[in-house]
Amino acid sequence: MNTAAEQHRPPAAAYAQAAETAGRAPSIHNTQPWHWQVHPDRLDLFADTSRALPGTDPDERMMLVSCGAALHHAQVALVAQGHTVETRTLPDPAQPHHLATLVISGDAPVTAEAVRLVQALQLRHTDRRPTVDTPVSPEQVDELRRIAGEYGVHLHRFTPEQVSELAVAVSRAEDAAAGEPVLRAETAAWTGPGRPAGAGVPPEFIPDKRPETDVGERDFTARGALPVGGGHDKSSTYVVLFGGEDDRDAWLRAGQALSAVWLHATGQGLAVLPYSQVIEIDGSRAMMRRILSNLGYAYIVLRLGVADPDHPLPGHTPRLPFDTTATVDPE
């Protein structure tokens, strides 16, 4: 990878590789709600509403965050191939689901940082198990805050008192979701035996029991097969990505920041668990705004910690075939 020959391949080949790499991005319920159009002169990102969650995500917040993460993954892939990239987000107001256009604007030396990000991209995963008793350092959080800021997104570390408020917000979000048959049906559709092939969350990635943690996790309506042990997450750090705007452009940038923060956290040896349920429910989203003292809108909450090295995850959640998430135009 990253050889001079690869730098001089036709741009369409580089775009196709970037779109395929972007398929590893995180998404709500692993829905992978994106579709790429690979052209000889550009790469276009669209939201694929056939994999949207109209009950859980009626405003398409988390769909846009998910697509923003895929956008960042594609940018990382192109830079690691030795290219400079120009990105235009939401390029056509008449097509709200046309989210971005990427164009290779030149060549550049491949840096060690670019290589590290691609390596982290291959390793990144969601870890729902309790973390071990190794604290996250202030320096690590400061670095992740800097990374988020590159996308115009703020990162706030919850104080112990705010973690207690977060736990209440998560609990209320879970209670609200449990009382809505449509939300439960959507969750079951993407986590149960009838989930789409190559997508959703299989049982081996869902805890076999509810972890006894201070901040509860998402209730997937059925127990999985992932052993969680007896940890309590006492050394975990909780952060929130937030900003001053609450619109499609902000959600797309939040997704880019999420991907960037997650890849750098992976490079730091940290495990990451997103909490999107507090954003999906109106009441808990309002609680998050109050926790932030009305300084901004919460985009997503992340738990950061160190995973137990003696109990690795079974691998990565499944991914859809490339020809499902991308269309390659003939040259």
Question: Explain this structure to me?
Answer:
With 331 residues, this protein is an alpha+beta fold. It folds into two domains: 4-124, NADH Oxidase; 138-305, NADH Oxidase, CATH 3.40.109.10. It is built from eleven helices and nine strands. It has helices spanning 4-7, 11-22, 61-80, 112-123, 138-149, 160-178, 181-191, 248-267, 277-280, 282-291, 322-325, and strands spanning 34-38, 43-47, 83-89, 98-107, 154-157, 237-243, 271-275, 297-305, 326-328. Helix 2 crosses helix 3 (61-80) and helix 6 runs antiparallel to helix 10. The radius of gyration is 19 Å and the shape is globular.
Secondary-structure topology with pairs:
Blueprint: H1 4-7, H2 11-22, E1 34-38, E2 43-47, H3 61-80, E3 83-89, E4 98-107, H4 112-123, H5 138-149, E5 154-157, H6 160-178, H7 181-191, E6 237-243, H8 248-267, E7 271-275, H9 277-280, H10 282-291, E8 297-305, H11 322-325, E9 326-328
Percent range of helical residues: 25-40%
What integer value in Å does the Rg equal? 19 Å
What is CATH's topology name of the largest domain?
Answer: NADH Oxidase
CATH class type of the largest domain: Alpha Beta
Low-confidence stretches: 1-5
Q: What number of structural domains do the residues give?
A: 2
Shape: globular
CATH-defined architecture of the largest domain: 3-Layer(aba) Sandwich
Number of extended strands: 9
User: What is the rounded distance between the termini?
Assistant: 23 Å
Query: What is the N-to-C succession of helices and strands?
Result: HHEEHEEHHEHHEHEHHEHE
Largest sheet: 5 strands, mixed
> So, the CATH homologous superfamily of the largest domain?
NADH Oxidase
In spatial order, strands of the major sheet run: 3-4-2-1-9
Number of helices: 11
**DSSP strand (E) fraction?**
15-25%
Region (Disordered): 1-24, 190-214
GO molecular function: oxidoreductase activity
Biased composition (Low complexity): 12-24, 192-203
Protein name: NAD(P)H nitroreductase
